[in-house]
Write a structure and sequence with these properties.
elongated; binds magnesium ion; binds guanosine-5'-triphosphate; 8 strands; 49% helix; alpha/beta
Length: 310
C-alpha cells in the first residue's frame, strides 16, 4: 500500500464522521439546499470529531463564503487551502534529520520524548528509531522512564529487536542521570540520534513536570543548546483533552513539537487543528498503527487530502 493510502486507511474513522458525507452533500449541492439543517449537521459533525467550537465556526464561515461565491471545485479548493493553513506551522529542518534538525556540531540530535502514560511514547520511540535507521543514521536509546520496571524492559526489547545500543539503569534510578549518560555515550560513539524516553506518570502531575524540567536541566550540562527536540506524544483518541495536556507540558518545558499517535483508532482527530492554530506548536510526526512502519512525518497537505478525498 502506498504511503498516502496507508494514511487514508489510518484516518478512516475520522473521515467517516467528518467529511465523507459532507463532500458528497456539497458535490450535489445543485440538487440539495444548503439550508440551516445542512450547516447544523456539519457543525455537529465537526464538534463530534473534536475540532473545537471556535475552529468549527471558522471552518463553517469559510465554507459558507466560498460556496456562495464560487463554483464547486474552486470552493472546495479554497476550503482545502484553509484547512491546510490551519495545520501548517513552518519550522526549520535539515535533509539529514528530516523533519527534525541538528545544527549543533559535535553533538547528536537529542530528542526528549514526553507525554502522559499510555499515549504511545515507547512505541513512538521504536518507530522513530527505525525511521532514522532506515535513513542510514545511527541511533541510541535512553531508558529515562525509571519509574516502572516494565518501561525499562519494553524499551530494552525494542533496542534488541532493532539492534540498537541502549543506556539504562535499575528501576528508581535518577532519570536525569540516564539522559545525561545516553548523550555521553552517543558523543563517544559518534552516534547521530539520541532518543530519550521519560515517565508518563509519577506520584502526581507537578512531580512529573519537575522531573522533566530536571532532566532538561541536566541535559543542558552537555550544551545549553540541547535537547534540540522536546516532543509531546498525544493520543489521537483523547480528542480535545489533548489541548489541556499540551498546555501543561509546554508551560513546563517549552515543547518544540508534538506527535499524534493512534490516528487509526480515533474519530476525534479534529483536535489537531487547535494544537497548531491555537497553541502554535508544529506537529512533526503521526503514527497510525502498531507496526514499526506506521509512522510518517506530518505533512498538512497530505493529511487534509487524505481527510477530504475518496
Ligand atoms: N493502533 C495503534 N496503537 C498504538 C499506536 N501507538 C501506540 N499504540 C499502542 O498504545 C499502547 C501504549 O503504547 P506505549 O508506547 O506503551 O505508551 P507509553 O506512552 O509509552 O505508555 P507508558 O510508558 O505506560 O506511559 C500500546 O498497546 C501500543 O501498541 C498507534 O499509532 N496505533
Ligand atoms: Mg512507555
Amino acid at each position: 500500500m502506498s504511503i498516502i493510502n496507508r494514511i487514508k486507511e489510518g484516518l478512516k474513522k475520522t473521515k467517516e464522521i467528518l467529511f465523507t458525507d459532507v463532500r458528497d452533500l456539497i458535490k450535489k449541492r445543485e440538487a440539495i439546499v444548503l439550508d440551516s439543517n445542512f450547516w447544523e449537521d456539519l457543525e455537529s459533525r465537526l464538534l463530534v470529531a473534536d475540532v473545537g467550537v471556535n475552529i468549527t465556526k471558522h471552518i463553517i464561515n469559510v465554507m459558507q463564503k466560498s460556496l456562495k461565491t464560487k463554483d464547486y471545485s474552486s470552493a472546495w479548493q479554497e476550503i482545502e487551502k484553509e484547512l491546510v493553513s490551519l495545520l501548517d506551522i513552518p519550522y526549520y529542518w535539515d535533509e539529514k534529520y528530516f523533519p527534525l534538525r541538528n545544527e549543533i556540531s559535535g553533538y547528536p540530535l537529542v530528542i526528549m520524548v514526553v507525554g502522559v502514560n499510555g499515549t504511545g511514547k515507547t512505541s513512538f520511540i521504536a518507530k522513530l528509531a527505525n525511521y532514522y535507521k532506515n535513513k542510514g543514521l545511527s541511533v541510541i536509546l535512553g531508558a529515562g522512564d525509571t519509574y516502572r520496571a516494565a518501561a525499562i524492559e519494553q524499551l530494552s526489547h525494542w533496542a534488541d529487536r532493532l539492534s540498537l545500543p541502549i543506556v539504562k539503569q535499575n528501576i528508581g534510578a535518577d532519570s536525569a542521570a540516564v539522559a545525561y549518560d545516553t548523550i555521553n555515550s552517543a558523543i563517544s560513539k559518534n552516534i547521530d540520534v539520541a532518543i530519550i524516553d521519560t515517565a508518563g506518570r509519577l506520584h502526581n502531575k507537578s512531580n512529573l513536570m519537575k522531573e522533566l524540567q530536571k532532566i532538561e536541566k541536566v541535559i543542558k550540562k552537555h550544551s545549553p543548546d540541547l535537547p534540540q527536540e522536546k516532543i509531546l506524544i498525544l493520543d489521537a483518541t483523547y480528542g480535545q483533552n489533548s489541548i489541556q495536556q499540551t498546555k501543561v507540558f509546554t508551560d513546563a518545558i517549552n515543547l518544540t513539537s508534538v506527535a499524534i499517535t493512534k490516528l487509526d483508532t480515533s474519530f476525534k482527530a479534529g483536535f489537531i487543528f487547535s494544537i497548531t492554530s491555537t497553541l502554535g506548536i508544529p506537529i512533526k510526526f503521526i503514527t497510525f498503527g502498531e507496526n514499526l512502519e506506521d509512522i510518517q512525518p506530518f505533512n498538512p497537505k497530505e493529511f487534509v487530502n487524505a481527510l477530504l478525498q475518496d
